Amino acid sequence: MNSRIQAIIQQPADSGQALNYRLAAAPVVQVDKISKTYRSGESEISVFRDLDLSVQSGEQVAIVGESGAGKSTLLHLLAGLDMPSAGAIYYRGTNIAALNESGRATFRNREIGYVWQQHHLLSEFTALENVMMPLLIRGVGRIPAAAAAQARLEEVGLAARAVHRAGELSGGEQQRVAIARALVTDPSLLLADEPTGNLDERTGAAVFGLISDLRRKRNLTAVLVTHNQQFARVCDRILRLEAGALR
């Protein structure tokens, strides 16, 4: 291993049984009648009211819709980054909307992998250091955090770029680092907000394919926001957010 890195340092069930389990199992994500409104002066702006959503374990759901429809707002709510004005958001039976700020932060660090349209890498740090960050925040030691980060970089094909600073990487490489960072904590729910929106068509297709492959390999539940209909069709379901409702 590079000295710089050192320094930083289910088995498938019978198909019938599996189907019966999926039908009987509770959803991983259950959104019940949530509303989100903002105040602007004396006016109230409603993003959505009484919105429902159910996502099963291992399912990959695409959310599509016009710009400004509230897709990113919905992902923020699912991740506990924002709070609904009304309603409940259950993750494996726990209402995350009822958690305090510390509880939501712990929930995000333990359960959520989030890939943004903007990669939000720390430019002064290397690819490896960026991927390590969620584990360091959790309190994992630097040596095991570096080992886990290196393994994730290998998964996204960037092991050789581990000691390069974020600004030295191409746009596609930066987004792959962001994917590695999202997966380094072994989350159970992957949220992606236009993860290919800033990439050219060819690079975007490669990045989306990587996300889908890794999600399948890890049996992650995923909710993806995208404007790309071709990418959306790869998902198990496509839901359109329109006029404050999912259709």
Task: Write a brief caption for the model.
The chain is α/β, with parallel strands linked by helices. The chain is 39% helix and 24% strand.
Would you kindly provide a written description of the structure presented here, covering whatever features stand out?
The protein has a single domain, classed as 3-Layer(aba) Sandwich (Rossmann fold), CATH 3.40.50.300. Helices cover 39% and strands 24% of the residues. It is built from 9 helices and 10 strands. Strands 6-7-8-3-9-10 form a 6-stranded mixed sheet. Helix 7 (171-183) runs parallel beside helix 8 (201-218). The termini are far apart.
- Give the structural class: alpha/beta
CATH superfamily: P-loop containing nucleotide triphosphate hydrolases
- CATH class annotation: Alpha Beta
H/E series: HHEEEHEEHEHHHEHEHEE
